[in-house]
Write a structure and sequence with these properties.
Layout (H helix, E strand, L loop, with lengths): L16 H17 L2 H9 L8 E5 L7 H8 L7 E4 L6 H6 L6 E3 L16 E5 L7 H13 L4 E5 L7 H22 L8 H9 L2 H16 L3 H9 L7 E9 L5 E10 L2
Parallel strand pairs: 1-2, 1-4, 2-3, 4-5
Antiparallel strand pairs: 5-7, 6-7
Helix pairs in contact: 1-8, 2-3, 6-8
The protein binds S-adenosylmethionine (SAM).
């Protein structure tokens, strides 16, 4: 397996929630900059079938799925999006409170217990790399045995060789720290704690930069994912597919890895 199990600050239970939630707000801005709504909408459309509910796991500060929903809703197919996270974001819960098409679950939802999550197509957007190997295996196994559609998207397509990653790490961290200073004014809602821990005591930019970089070698490659599903019992009624993520112009951005029941 090529994946390297580095740590990310936001995965530590002791990590202050105020820093975690402001980091995930930066991820929302990054997702929009990368136009991931377009890429994910293109990937998920063929799997919607007659399903009405999409359940996003590891939604952080809301992520990009609300924008994806706008792109995939049609007058014939009205969809509902349920956002969830191991560490639910209170500000995002409040943001979607009066939205009929979207709700954010207040209780913690662990992607490991896929079968306990609300019913609907499951999505994991830039979240699967947070799952250590045994958890990743159980999630895939649970999706297959419960015949659930599981749509995984990761923005890192082909992880760099680890040596190259280490060589560029200092420069990449500096770039991400500077970027986060410019991205902060575009986050919603802006809070005084966020401004304090960004511009005065820059814990948020430092942790964001590290987690962003660490997520690259943590991303499961195509070969990693294929070897994981090869370990599952063979099931002719369930299908796994790996595809390049594509924007509307056909440019590759990340990958989709999708498990779905065969009709
Ligand atoms: C990199 S953020 C991605 C957030 C969002 N999907 C986006 O694209 O903006 C990863 C999220 O996964 C969540 N997470 C980590 N482990 C999890 C688990 N076992 N179950 C559910 N969520 C988890 C973290 O709390 C964090 O909000």
């Amino acid at each position: 397996m090529k994946r390297v199990q580095l740590f990310e600050f936001e995965d530590f239970t002791w990590f202050p929630d105020v820093i975690r939630k402001n980091m995930t707000k930066l991820i929302v801005v990054f997702n929009k900059m990368m136009k991931l709504d377009e890429v994910i909408a293109n990937g998920i459309k063929p799997y919607l079938g007659k399903g009405k509910n999409i359940v996003d796991l590891g939604s952080g500060a809301g992520g990009i799925m609300p924008q994806v929903l706008n792109k995939i809703q049609t007058s014939e197919q009205k969809l509902h999006l349920t956002l969830t996270d191991l560490y639910p974001n209170k500000e995002a819960i409040a943001e979607f409170k009066n939205n009929e098409a979207i709700d954010y679950q207040m209780g913690s939802v662990n992607a490991l217990h896929l079968e306990k999550a609300p019913e609907g197509i499951k999505t994991m957007i830039n979240c699967f790399h947070h799952m250590p190997l045994p958890t990743a295996k159980s999630i895939l196994k649970s999706a297959q045995s419960n015949k659930e559609t599981l749509f995984i998207y990761e923005v890192t397509n082909k992880p760099l060789p680890l040596l190259v990653w280490w060589l560029f790490l200092p420069l990449s961290l500096i770039i991400l720290i500077i970027m986060s200073l410019f991205m902060t004014p575009f986050t919603k809602p802006i809070t005084w704690q966020q401004l304090l821990f960004t511009y005065i005591i820059p814990i948020i930019p430092i942790a964001y930069a590290w987690d962003g970089q660490a997520s690259m070698p943590r991303t499961y490659s195509k070969t990693d994912l294929e070897s994981l599903v090869n370990e599952l019992p063979k099931d002719p009624k369930y299908h796994w597919e790996f595809m390049d993520g594509k924007n509307n112009k056909g440019k590759t951005t990340g990958y989709y890895f999708v498990g779905s029941p065969v009709n």
